[in-house]
Inverse folding.
């Protein structure tokens, strides 16, 4: 939602620009690939900047503690619990980056950094404790049929007894949603191992955005009538995907987690492209646009400007997300 530092790139004419967009969109469904599986195994890499640099080494190390988890899965849990905020506290008294309640921390908290104490507010203790607790739960349910990672997550949500009783993920809506949420979010924290599938909604999102070309920017703008139909950057991307039935979070740094992350040379029209002054931390992302091909995006750049085409290849280019419906649904409403 923050203004991006970028110069104006003027196209020859609006009509030529729209023709360019539609030619680029025409090929959006022609490339297909596979997402990284990412469940268990411990060898799953992290997507660029998805985990703040301060915690990357901890997540990589402790995400390999047992074969029921991996770094991307651990990252997904931490993001879902706290948005990587080490000072987070919930109304239920859950504390820290991993959101341990005091009773669970007393039993399962570990001294991850070996400094002689167990501090729930210290990620050096809390992240190892989260991984350790996951692996403990995995041991509790190791003989239950089914996927060991899904059973571990179900035990985290519903208790190990329920998993053992039902022979796998129990038939509780909340528990099944929790398992699906974390395993889906995992894909947005994993570095893809092959080219990722194009978004089915991409062409419609671009069609919406290109109709807004020339609309004046408004900080906090969601395109509503009382705002004169104006947008800021993440308001535009949210509305574009909402027009095709995909609900994104409001701010850019959460939109980054709405799907897997193609590399720069794998960008397709419809991908969201992100910009930041800190290229190691997705939580610092401050601008987003919709890629249209040819090195350009449609974006709402800043106060005093209009929705327009801008180049993607700038020094503050952070990365991209290929939005998926499941990925967007998995995102927490507030982190």
């Amino acid at each position: 939602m923050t203004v991006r530092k970028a110069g104006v790139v003027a196209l020859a004419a609006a009509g030529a620009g729209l023709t360019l967009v539609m030619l680029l969109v025409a090929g959006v469904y022609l490339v297909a690939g596979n997402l990284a599986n990412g469940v268990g195994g411990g060898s799953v890499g992290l997507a660029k900047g998805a985990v703040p640099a301060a915690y990357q080494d901890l997540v990589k190390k402790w995400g390999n503690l047992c074969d029921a988890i991996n770094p991307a899965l651990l990252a997904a849990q931490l993001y879902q619990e706290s948005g990587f905020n080490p000072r987070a506290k919930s109304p239920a008294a859950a504390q820290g980056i991993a959101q341990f309640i005091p009773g669970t921390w007393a039993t399962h908290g570990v001294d991850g950094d070996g400094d002689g104490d167990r501090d729930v507010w210290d990620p050096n203790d809390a992240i190892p404790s989260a991984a350790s607790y996951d692996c403990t739960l995995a041991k509790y349910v190791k003989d239950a049929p089914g996927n060991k990672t899904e059973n571990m997550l179900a035990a985290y949500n519903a208790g190990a007894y329920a998993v053992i009783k039902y022979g796998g993920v129990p038939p509780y809506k909340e528990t099944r949603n929790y398992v699906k949420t974390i395993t889906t979010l995992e894909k947005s924290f994993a570095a893809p191992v092959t080219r990722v599938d194009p978004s089915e909604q991409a062409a419609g999102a671009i069609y919406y955005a290109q109709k807004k070309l020339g609309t004046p920017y408004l900080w906090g703008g969601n395109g509503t009538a009382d705002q004169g139909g104006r947008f800021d950057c993440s308001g535009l991307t949210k509305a574009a995907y909402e027009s095709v039935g995909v609900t994104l979070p409001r701010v850019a740094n959460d939109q980054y987690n709405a799907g897997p992350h193609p590399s720069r040379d794998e960008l397709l029209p419809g991908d969201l492209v992100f910009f930041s002054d800190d290229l190691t931390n997705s939580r610092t992302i401050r601008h987003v646009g919709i890629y249209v091909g040819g090195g350009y995006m449609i974006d709402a750049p800043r106060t005093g400007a209009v929705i327009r085409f801008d180049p993607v290849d700038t020094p503050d280019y952070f990365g991209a997300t290929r939005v998926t419906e499941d990925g967007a649904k998995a995102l927490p409403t507030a982190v």
User: Anything to note?
Assistant: The beta strands are 272-275, 287-293, 296-299, 308-311, 317-321. The chain is about 35% helix and 5% strand. The CA atoms of residues 214 and 306 lie 5 Å apart.
